[in-house]
Amino acid sequence: MMFRRLFVCFAFVTALAAPAAAQDAADAIVRLNRLESQFRQMSGQLEQLQFENRQLKEQLRKFQEDVEFRFQESRGGSRATPPPTTTPSRPSQPQSPATPQPQRRSDVFDPSEVPDAPGAPRPLGTTAPSAPLASAEAVSPMPMPSGAIGGIEDLIEEDEDAAGAAPLDLDSRTAEIPQAPAPVTSRPSVAATSIGNPRSDYETAYAYMTQRQYDEAEMGFRRFLQSNPRDRLVPEASYWLGETYLQRGRYREAAEQFLNVSTDHPNAARAPEALLKLGVALNGLGARDRACAVYAELGRKYPQAPASVRQGSEREQKRAKCI
Predict the structure, then answer these.
(1) Is the whole model's pTM more than 0.85, yes or no?
(2) What is the pLDDT of residues 84-100, one digit of tens each?
(3) Which has the closest alpha carbon to 300: 142, 143, 149?
(4) Rounded Cα–Cα distance for residues 41 and 147 (Å)
(5) How confident is the model at residue 70 (pLDDT cuts 50, 70, 90)?
(6) Domain 147-319, architecture per CATH
(7) Residue 110 burial by CB count (10 A; 0-12/13-18/19+): exposed, middle or buried?
(8) Secondary structure of the chain in the HEC alphabet?
(9) Alpha carbon separation from 123 to 42, 116, 127, 128, 176 (Å, rounded)
(10) Which residues, 6 or more positions from 195, have their beta carbon under 8 angstroms from its beta carbon?
(11) I want to staple 261 with a disulfide (CB 3.0 to 4.6 A). Which of 70, 71, 195, 274 is the partner?
(12) CA pair distance 15, 11, nearest whole angstrom
């Protein structure tokens, strides 16, 4: 600090002597201040490093003490429990265990004691094979909600040869099928034309239906229902599949499909018409009483049905002599 004061005095005297020398002295003072600031910063960093170094040394010392303590403890523990020795004069005598063996609980199931008990493992290949799952066509439809027509399922399972009724005139109902936008010119296999698009598969089968190619339409709708059991077009596809059967006089299969639509999808747009066609199919099977009950159920369950459905119900009731 004394040197700085002398330097300042010298600079001040020089400034009085000449203006140029005063400017140089001012620059020197500025540089000196910068050097002092840098020196203070370096001193602070040095103190910080020294503090960290002391911390590291303290941590290293504690770590060494801990390792030494653990090492001594492990050596002392091994000496405290020496290994057991055997008597050389009596080698054949079994030694008693140092600790008692744990006893098995009495309520624990042991499959070796009761090999035939339920849940016990069986040797591979000794169990009887499971019964095959029923196909989608073999599953019986759900019962109708009304008790007046509760025996329809049993009737559907009967052979259609025992119906004893003449085929109905269905020409008046075929006119209700709207025309498809694109006609089908060829008749390839429906299964071979699948492109994995549910909408396209449905439209392909529906096009066969409008062309009255009922065999191809049946294959198309069946393949659609098997491949897309949760699609929103399932009620429509089930209805038109039943229509393919109805148009060919296969009343049992037709009644099954129409019953599926009425029970599984009662709120679908085709549900009232499906219930009407169910009555037509039952009348074709010779079950006139059940057909009349279905027509009555149609008026009770769907009072707001379209006019065409209500008119068709009245026409079929007169045809079956229900009224």
Answers:
(1) no
(2) 545 444 545 555 555 55
(3) 149
(4) 99
(5) confident
(6) Alpha Horseshoe (1.25)
(7) exposed
(8) CHHHHHHHHHHHHHHHHCHHHHHHHHHHHHHHHHHHHHHHHHHHHHHHHHHHHHHHHHHHHHHHHHHHHHHHHHHHHHHHCCCCCCCCCCCCCCCCCCCCCCCCCCCCCCCCCCCCCCCCCCCCCCCCCCCCCCCCCCCCCCCCCCHHHCCHHHHHHCCHHHCCCCCCCCHHHHCCCCCCCCCCCCCCCCHHHCCCCHHHHHHHHHHHHHCCCHHHHHHHHHHHHHHCCCCCCHHHHHHHHHHHHHHCCCHHHHHHHHHHHHHHCCCCCCHHHHHHHHHHHHHHCCCHHHHHHHHHHHHHHCCCCCHHHHHHHHHHHHHCCCC
(9) 82, 11, 8, 12, 62
(10) 201
(11) 274
(12) 6
Say if residues 167 and 284 touch (Cβ distance below 8 Å): yes
| The token pair that represents 174 in the structure block | 């075929």
Q: Which two tokens stand for residue 83?
A: 């290994």
pLDDT at 244: 95
Whether 14 contacts 21, CB under 8 Å: yes
Structure-token match 């203006």, residue found: 19
Roughly what angle, to the nearest 10 degrees, separates helices 234-247 and 198-210? 20
Provide the token pair at 226. Answer: 């098997």
